[in-house]
């Protein structure tokens, strides 16, 4: 596919990428039908491929338990008082730790797992643009593994299984909706460590590195996100208490986690479709809490259960539902496939350029 031209529209707190002469391949009602088709097809095939059972998910959890996800470790969730209980609760930001509790409490065994429709609000989202919204909808999933499966080979194996379903879904979408240009994903996913990427592009920012490698390889799994690189900074921040980003995985490189990144010609940039990782065991949890200066969390409900060997070892992650729909339908803005709230300036810019926000 030829590289589409684009230009940038600025607004008060950010910028939007606008494809030149953009027009959606389908109207809003047809887009809504396509969204349902994609979500139904993907989750059915994903659950079968990964041996996952769908479960119900909470929209809120009790505060001060360690169950909620603070993402990079600093984003604060929305909290509220529960009058009938006399406690405070929080709107979830993801279900990274709740899922691991559920694996244990629901009686799952090794090789089995769960997935759920996760809907969250992230009020501290730094940017609202083509790819970022305060509303998050994703398939959160978690699967039990054995001690000898806590390694890079197993992580890559799971990544390939997920990518297989992504490719299969793109093919079916292109066959069903002929107005969408042909499939663009390659057959195989390219694996690279964040330290290798830094060595290749030492003068670029992490986001620029992602764009550069994805433009070349088209789809990449970037390994090792959270530990410091040679420049003294991580490729991106990760919380201390879900993914294991400190364990060495070979050649002294660290990290048992990563992101699936794809090159998106509509916007001429890389976009993240999924983030996942082998979860911390009690040793890596303590090391990462110490690095982050968060040892006070060891007495939280989630952390104490993990440290007392009450939770299974697991691998898990999230797959962006709106990101997938946006990619498969070749949309220019995530607001075309999800209903969220946007600054008036963004709405005006999108309307000016034929971008239909839901």
Keyphrases for this structure?
358 residues; alpha+beta; BirA Bifunctional Protein, domain 2; eight-stranded mixed β-sheet; 9 helices; 13 strands
Architecture overview:
The structure is a single chain. With 358 residues, the chain is of the alpha+beta class. The protein has nine helices and 13 strands. It has an eight-stranded mixed beta sheet with strand order 3-7-8-13-12-11-10-9. Strands 4-6-5 form a three-stranded antiparallel beta sheet, with no helix packed on it. Strand 5 and strand 6 form a beta hairpin. Helix 1 crosses helix 8. The model has no long low-confidence stretch (mean pLDDT 90).
Sum this structure up briefly.
This protein has helices spanning 28-50, 98-105, 152-176, 194-200, 206-217, 282-292, 301-307, 321-328, 344-352; strands spanning 6-11, 14-19, 52-54, 60-62, 79-82, 87-91, 113-121, 135-144, 190-193, 219-223, 257-264, 269-278, 314-320. It is of the alpha+beta class and 358 residues long. Helix 1 (28-50) packs antiparallel against helix 3 (152-176) and helix 1 (28-50) packs across helix 8.
Query: What is the overall pLDDT average?
Result: 90
CATH C-level class: Alpha Beta
Alpha-beta classification: alpha+beta
Quaternary organization? single chain
SSE map:
Elements: E1 6-11, E2 14-19, H1 28-50, E3 52-54, E4 60-62, E5 79-82, E6 87-91, H2 98-105, E7 113-121, E8 135-144, H3 152-176, E9 190-193, H4 194-200, H5 206-217, E10 219-223, E11 257-264, E12 269-278, H6 282-292, H7 301-307, E13 314-320, H8 321-328, H9 344-352
Parallel strand pairs: 3-7, 9-10
Antiparallel strand pairs: 1-2, 4-6, 5-6, 7-8, 8-13, 10-11, 11-12, 12-13
């Amino acid at each position: 596919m030829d590289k589409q031209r684009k230009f940038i529209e600025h607004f008060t707190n950010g910028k939007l990428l606008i494809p030149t002469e953009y027009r959606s391949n389908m109207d809003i009602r047809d887009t809504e039908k396509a969204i349902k088709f994609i979500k139904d097809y993907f989750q059915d095939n994903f659950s079968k491929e990964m041996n996952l059972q769908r479960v119900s998910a909470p929209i809120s959890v009790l505060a001060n338990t360690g169950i909620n996800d603070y993402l990079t470790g600093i984003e604060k969730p929305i909290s509220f008082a529960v009058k009938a209980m006399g406690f405070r609760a929080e709107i979830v930001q993801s279900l990274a730790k709740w899922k691991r509790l559920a694996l244990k409490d629901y009686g799952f065994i090794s090789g089995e797992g769960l997935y759920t429709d996760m809907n969250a609000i992230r009020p501290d989202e730094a940017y609202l643009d083509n790819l970022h919204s305060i509303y998050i909808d994703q398939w959160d999933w978690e699967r039990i593994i054995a001690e000898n499966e806590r390694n890079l080979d197993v992580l890559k194996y799971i990544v390939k299984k997920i990518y297989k379903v992504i490719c299969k879904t793109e093919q079916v979408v292109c066959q069903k909706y002929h107005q969408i240009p042909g499939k663009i994903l390659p057959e195989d996913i390219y694996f690279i460590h964040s330290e290798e990427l830094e060595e290749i592009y030492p003068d670029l920012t992490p986001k620029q590195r992602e764009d550069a490698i994805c433009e070349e390889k088209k789809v990449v799994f970037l390994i090792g996100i959270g530990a410091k690189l040679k420049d003294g900074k991580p490729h991106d921040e990760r919380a201390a208490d879900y993914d294991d980003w400190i364990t060495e995985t070979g050649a002294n490189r660290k990290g048992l986690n990563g992101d699936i990144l794809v090159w998106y010609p509509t916007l001429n940039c890389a976009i993240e479709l999924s983030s996942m990782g082998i979860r911390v065991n009690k040793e890596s949890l303590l090391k990462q809490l110490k690095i982050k200066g968060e040892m006070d969390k060891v007495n939280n409900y989630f952390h104490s259960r993990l440290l007392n060997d009450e939770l299974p070892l697991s691998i898990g992650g999230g797959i962006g539902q709106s990101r997938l729909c946006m990619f498969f339908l070749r949309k220019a803005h995530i607001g075309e496939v999800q209903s969220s709230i946007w600054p008036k300036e963004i709405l005006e810019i999108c309307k000016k350029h034929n971008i239909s926000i839901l």
